[in-house]
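To: structure desk
From: M.T.
Subject: fold request, one chain
Message: Could you run this one when you get a chance? Sequence is below, nothing fancy, just the single chain.
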Amino acid sequence: MQYLSPRNAAVLITLCSIAFGLAATGVRGNEPDPEYSFVYLGDLHFDKESHHDFEWVRANMPADIRQIEDYVRITENFTPGLFKRIQTSIESSDGRIKMIVQGGDLTEGLCGSRELQETQFKDVTACIRKYIPQTPFIAGKGNHDITGPGAKEAFDRVMLPWLSKECGKPISSASFYFMKGPDLFVFFDAYHDNNLDWLQKTLSENKHRHAFVIMHPPAVPYNARSTWHVFSKAKDKDVRERFLSILGANNVVLLTAHLHKYSVVERKTPAGSFVQFSVNSVISSSQVEVRDAMEGVEKYGGSLVDLEPEFQPDTKQDRMKLLEDEKPHIARYEFADFPGYAIIGVSDKGIDATIYKGDSGTAWKTVSLAAAVKSK
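Reply: Done. Structure tokens follow.
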């Protein structure tokens, strides 16, 4: 065996350490950047009857009792099947699927106390680990996750430590980010820590190949509920324009949920374009059908309010106008009504989402999530 001097041994150790560090961060010299996939889930609304103080619900949210009953049934009958399907996809991916990203409303909320909401969060994370034992599962904050007394405090006490563990770094807010190899993932809290200075700084200071922003409500309306996007009020017009420009300047892929529908929208801004991708993962039946499927910019506009003719008829004209005002900025539009999940593939070539109906393992379609109009 050839003898190494202490100095040469130290140099060898240093070089090995650098090589290991580069490999661990996904940077591999002149080789192509790594290709990988992740699962994207929309709303889940995990729930059990024991999570609720029904006396509080009846007194404060009586119209939501039937909704709670539906989500309890869905959680018991369909959520395990979805998680099993995801684990099967992970096991058959030869290590390609690296994580699961969830867009908020992981839970139903409406528990009635901080203690019950903490139990709901602990139960959903236990269920995830029962069926998906190892793959990181990183969830955004949805409005249901923080609805009810003590719910925000429960999110901070239970979910922030969970997210810290899943991300492998301290997480102290529902607005946070991490790098996956050369790609940036930014979770944006639409309800509390929605600081645009922080978002702009995070996107500009972290060099990346692709940038994903995960946020529960959409930034661009895309169906009959056209007032349910973030910064939708007239007083927030300037804030919204800045927000959209930040997304466009970075050609972001924006992953959203909230409206319980599938959609792909490319939105132009003066700074560039971004793509908004939405799915719904509330599977309420073993038979999943695709309804109201449409594709093409010509389908976008005020007529989308007719998808839900009984929804808030008193606001119909306002919702139609909002969609018509947005229409000139839309460069691409797809929509469909069904639940499922997506597996998003990421590489140097781009970003593609393969969409699955319900908990099926058969792909419905694959779409590109690349913006056609790049920022300069």
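Reply (cont.): The longest strand covers residues 262-269. Let me know if you need anything else for the meeting.
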